[in-house]
């Protein structure tokens, strides 16, 4: 029996909260990926300070854009959340390795929580996989 087919419906309030959070996350992440792809001067400066090869900026921007696209499409949103978790984990590690202040280090962690939280609010498949309450 397919348990995903019998998932509980998502309330309208949860659905719209999840959609709005998802929209805000997608916009923010686009504002992170596009400057990388365009090799914006502030991105190049940050890459140089971190010791990353400048040629990787557009590659990392495209990787993030692909993750965002998968996350934004409802049928592939869980895969997108998994991919974004990996991307954000790398960003967390980079901040830790670079000795950045704690508030910069936890930003990708917070975004990871928001990625999964907004998906949980809008996707009954995820709710059926990870129930937060007994039935």
Can you put this structure into words, describing what you see?
The chain is mostly helical and 135 residues long. The chain has one domain. 76% of the residues lie in helices and 0% in strands. It has six helices and no strands. Helix 1 runs antiparallel to helix 3.
Portion in beta strands: under 5%
Integer tally of domains = 1
Number of helices: 6
Low-confidence stretches: 1-5
Order of helices and strands: HHHHHH
Average pLDDT value?
90
Shape: elongated
State Rg: 17 Å
* Number of E-state strands: 0
Q: Helix/strand-derived class?
A: mainly alpha
In angstroms, what separates the terminal alpha carbons? 18 Å
Helix content: over 70%
Write the layout of secondary structure elements.
Elements: H1 12-37, H2 41-50, H3 56-72, H4 77-98, H5 102-122, H6 124-129
Helix pairs in contact: 1-3, 1-5, 3-4, 4-5
Observed structural traits:
135 residues; mainly alpha; 6 helices; elongated
């Amino acid at each position: 029996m397919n348990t995903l087919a019998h998932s509980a419906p998502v309330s309208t309030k949860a659905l719209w909260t999840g959609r709005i959070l998802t929209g805000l996350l997608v916009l923010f992440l686009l504002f992170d990926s596009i400057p990388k792809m365009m090799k914006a001067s502030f991105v190049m400066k940050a890459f140089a300070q971190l010791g990353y090869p400048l040629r990787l900026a557009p590659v990392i921007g495209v990787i993030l854009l692909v993750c965002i696209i998968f996350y934004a499409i409802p049928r592939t949103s869980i895969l997108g959340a998994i991919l974004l978790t990996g991307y954000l984990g790398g960003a967390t590690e980079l901040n830790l390795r670079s000795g950045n202040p704690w508030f910069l280090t936890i930003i990708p962690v917070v975004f990871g929580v928001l990625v999964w939280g907004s998906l949980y609010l809008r996707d009954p498949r995820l709710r059926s996989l990870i129930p937060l309450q007994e039935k």
